[in-house]
Amino acid sequence: MTGTSQLVLRGVRPYGEGDPVDVLVRDGVIAELGTVDTGADTTIDGNGAVLLPGFVDLHTHLREPGREDTETIESGSRAAALGGYTAVFAMANTTPVADNALVTDHVWRRGQEAGLVDVHPVGAVTVGLDGEKLAELGGMAASAAGVRVFSDDGHCVADPLIMRRALEYATALDVVIAQHAEEPRLTVGAQAHEGPTAARLGLAGWPAFAEESIVARDCLMAGQLGARLHVCHVSTAGTVDVLRWAKARDTTAPGTQVSAEVTPHHLLLDDSRLETFDPVNKVNPPLRTASDAEALRAALAEGVLDCVATDHAPHAVQDKDCEWAAARPGMCGLQTALSVVVQTMVRPGLLDWRGVARVMSERPAEIAGLPDQGRPIAVGEPATLTLVDPDAEWTVRGAELASIAHNTPYEGMVLPGRVLATLLRGNVTAREGRAGR
Amino acid sequence: MKHLLTAAALDAAAATAVLDTADGLKHALLGREVHKLPTLRGRTVITMFYENSTRTRVSFEIAGKWMSADVVNVSAGGSSVGKGESLRDTALTLSAAGADCVIIRHPASGAAHRLAGWLRDTGTHVVNAGDGMHEHPTQALLDAATLRERLGGIDGRRIAIVGDVRHSRVARSNVHLLTALGAELVVVAPPTLLPTGLAEWGVPGLRVTHDLDAELPTVDAVMMLRVQAERMHGGFFPSAREYSIAYGLSERRMDLLPDHAVVLHPGPMLRGMEIASAVADSPRSAITAQVRNGVHVRMAVLYHLLAAEEDRS
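Output (structure tokens, whole complex):
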């Protein structure tokens, strides 16, 4: 369908609050909210389902260009739409690296062609992700893609002087540097969270302080330079403490200086998963302890962690069905993120649906500076929406996910919450488990 | 027992059964000119060694041959492995080619577990001959056999494990097995060579100390671990000299031991560094007995995996 036709969502509950209402969408915009008597070209019956602003993922690996055998922008867009996402940020660690406007514009254009979700390329901070020389941030920011988030994700910008320059330079461009916090000297050969479990299993440890020390350093620099820092995939209770301290010191408008994301897998899973040596559980940063996961859930509820980001990382079978040390780190997450958030945050009462809207949509849109995402559900606002059945339960099957690769740590798990429909500016991009325009 | 992947999975009864079988096999061969039992005739045992090893590979090969199994040795360098074949494909190939048992040594922790998973639907048994820093269960079994032989038992005995515990699969297997058999363990190492959270592993009675001299007068056995060359240059301790002074088993230290106490080393030894030559070659040293027992223990393991299954009801 096109934006000129009319669509009605019947019997939906915005933010899961109040009695069900109808939503009339015309020209991609919410035209009426209440009881809609007008007919429409398309009607979606909500049966009381929860209506949320479309989800925004600040951290996705779409693998194109370079590893189209594991994911393409098109297949990743379908997974995103099915997961309730209306905007995703595609990380720069492709082949070639997205460290120049040619690559970022290519990714942007391929996303537009797929048309299921706004695909925003993340630009590399340094040339070739090698941590030595700043990439042309200004050129990427000024290009068609209008890059607003830069990250060497997969690698830490470890050199403190390079990081300082990046944070400082970025202030003129109104862009944010997203740091993969990992002190590389402390993680040489690291395979798993450094703790009793990994030590007993003979897996070289990735200590929590390798993350926390970089986050502390970068928070201090961002504060003193008046720069903006976004911390990727926070995984430890210690990082939460550092962030709470940094945010308390922030005298600018709330949350503008330092922001942080947490992945669904760090909310739900822990290092007891190591026992099987199955590399489907190998990820960077590694699965931490159960008490870290508990601290992350509390911090997300409290707002010390701003948002959920998937770190969706598809990998080929041969890169996972091997010995632990040889496996690549990462797990698919776009289609399971909402369900994991419902499981870990909504069901235990840590977040209500307003809170889900905040961490899955509004805050990530603010952090990345997307003006038309994460908007209120109100007349005149873009119909960029996700309709969720909060009571549905489903069994995760990697092979049934839309991604080309199907490395999911949730295989066989029954999870709550299901995306019924996703709308991007009035266009239905996913409905009842099918993605498409 | 389908596989032998870890010593941690062995309880006292299972371990004792293997040790008793090893004793039986040892006595059956005693005084014989021909070291050959027909037990595993017609069975095929393949060793896959992805790390250099002389003693363990040879020990398994001899064990298989003394049991009349057909033993085939695959080494990573001279096979499809060298051409980049995945571990999974190699395992499935060897299983399909008729391996009744695959014995694997691999630098990645958990490699034997993965192998057992891939071979789940086959009849092939897996023996872990050392996976990364994780486990080396037959080494722990041969250490237990040697301690039993020299001390008359393990239950209630105090055993010191000294050296690079952090990187040692031998230490990990021994911590689990000797504890299961009732030993009281004390781990002696510099803090940099201790595994993380050893106290939280749930090993009953395990103590950690950095003072070797204080422990020696009350132990029944001291197990010295190898310090790998790459650790010596990795900043884990200031110098080989300082390590040797603090943690090496010198002649002076040997004299601190009770008369009955025995010295073990899994080999290969760094003489003069972690252990003095005079100690390694002394009557206290059970190092060659360990090697001899290694063959019998591995025969017993092959027996329990490949032959004893028919005996089970």
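Strands of chain B lie at 44-49, 70-75, 101-106, 125-131, 158-162, 184-188, 207-209, 221-224, 262-264.
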